[in-house]
Amino acid sequence: MAGYETAGIPFEGLFFDIPYMDKFADFSVDETTFPNLTTWTEDLHKLNRKLTLIIDAGLSAESIEN
To answer: pTM for this structure?
Structure first.
C-alpha cells in the first residue's frame, strides 16, 4: 500500500488469491505469512479501502490433523 501512496496511485481495494491460504485449504489463512491479517484488514477499512479474498474451491494436497 505504501508504494501506491508514494507513487500517487489511487486504489480502493486489494485482492488476495491462493497464497494467503494455509496449505491451499479453503477458509484458512497462512498465519506465518499473514500473522495480523485481521488487524491489517481493519486498518485498511479505516482508510475506506476493501480487501477481497478469493476462495478457490479445491482440496488441500496435505492432510490436516486435529
So the answer is: 0.68
